[in-house]
């Protein structure tokens, strides 16, 4: 299956303050999203997930690398970018912050149509989008304001605002993080039904591996600006190879054994350590397992290659690679 969206060698840097080194928020990423596929991009806060997602949407131009959409290079300016944003839509995590409190639901959903000069029946398009998002009958919501809706209803309005343009790709940044547990399942089920009914592709940005398990076909685990493990959701979440992925999974309620407590905070992206970028916090290196496997020196000094963007199982870890060879 061909990739709908493909990033190659993507890098996004931000200048440092007062002569400080530049921050490498995204530091070499290859990532493919196939048609009709849901990919979960997971990792701690500050690992670069949101910056990567915004760059894929054309909101943050990359410092280097390239994004292809439907085989064509993404242009970060002019009419081409506007046309792309009709085909790829962003769904933010906080529906209260995404919706203008002075706009009715109808105006919120119709905004995209007006920006892109839609010439069809606006009322019908808005009604269809609200209906697809699970707000039925849609006419009942036209004149309501965001404060009159529940959190789940507001998130459905945000999703309807994306659907109204008939996109091919949705990038959902923590789509259920601000919702009650009782509502999260409904929104996840909605995203799955949209994929089944409309053939939508989706990149779901999340720190929640449980969410990834419930919705994704494939998982990409990100740490300090780079993807460190990727594969199908079953491969990665039932048999994690990278110590960072193992640590993230260990804190889930159903995980066996004791949670892995990582020491310290993720390093500053302006001062990325040599060798494996996770080595300063790695429980495998700290426990002596990497030393026994004969790779401790590599962990500290040898830089790992960028993982390819395809769907095959991959891990950027000297210790995991040594286990496979052994």
Automatic annotation (TrEMBL):
NCBIfam families: oligo_HPY (TIGR01727)
InterPro entries documented for this protein: AAA+_ATPase, ABC_transp_ATP-bind, ABC_transporter-like_ATP-bd, ABC_transporter-like_CS, Oligopep_ABC_C, P-loop_NTPase
Molecular function terms from GO: ATP binding; ATP hydrolysis activity
A Pfam family annotated for this UniProt entry: oligo_HPY
Domain ABC transporter: 10-249
Single GO biological process annotation from the record: transmembrane transport
Family listed: Belongs to the ABC transporter superfamily.
Keywords, in A-Z order: ATP-binding, Nucleotide-binding, Transport
Entry protein name: Peptide/nickel transport system ATP-binding protein
């Amino acid at each position: 299956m061909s990739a709908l969206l493909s990033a190659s060698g993507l890098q996004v840097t931000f200048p440092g303050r007062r002569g400080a080194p530049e921050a490498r928020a995204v530091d070499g990423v290859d990532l493919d999203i196939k048609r009709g596929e849901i990919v979960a991009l997971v990792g701690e806060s500050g690992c670069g997930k949101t910056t990567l997602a915004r760059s894929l949407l054309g909101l943050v131009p990359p410092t280097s690398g390239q994004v292809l959409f439907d085989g064509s290079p993404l242009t970060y300016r002019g009419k081409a970018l506007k046309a792309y944003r009709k085909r790829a839509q962003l769904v933010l995590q906080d529906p209260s912050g995404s919706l203008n409190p002075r706009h009715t639901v109808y105006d919120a959903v119709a905004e995209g149509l007006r920006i892109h000069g839609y010439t069809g029946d606006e009322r019908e398009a808005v009604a269809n989008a609200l209906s697809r998002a699970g707000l039925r009958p849609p006419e009942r919501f036209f004149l309501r304001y965001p404060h009159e809706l529940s959190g789940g209803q507001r998130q459905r309005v945000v999703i309807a605002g994306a659907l109204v343009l008939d996109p091919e790709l949705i990038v959902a940044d923590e789509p259920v993080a601000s919702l009650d547990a009782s509502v999260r399942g409904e929104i996840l089920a909605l995203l799955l039904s949209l994929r089944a009914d409309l053939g939508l592709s989706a990149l779901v940005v999340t720190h929640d591996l449980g969410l990834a398990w419930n919705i994704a076909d494939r998982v990409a685990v990100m740490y300090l600006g780079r993807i460190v493990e990727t594969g199908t959701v079953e491969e990665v979440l039932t048999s994690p190879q990278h110590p960072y992925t193992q640590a993230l999974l260990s804190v889930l309620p159903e995980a066996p054994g004791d949670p892995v407590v990582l020491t310290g905070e993720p390093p500053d992206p302006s001062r990325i350590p040599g060798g494996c970028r996770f080595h300063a916090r790695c429980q495998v290196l700290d426990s002596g397992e990497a030393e026994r496997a004969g790779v401790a020196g590599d962990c500290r000094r040898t830089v790992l290659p960028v993982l390819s963007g395809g769907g095959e199982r991959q891990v950027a870890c000297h210790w995991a690679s040594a286990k496979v060879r052994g």
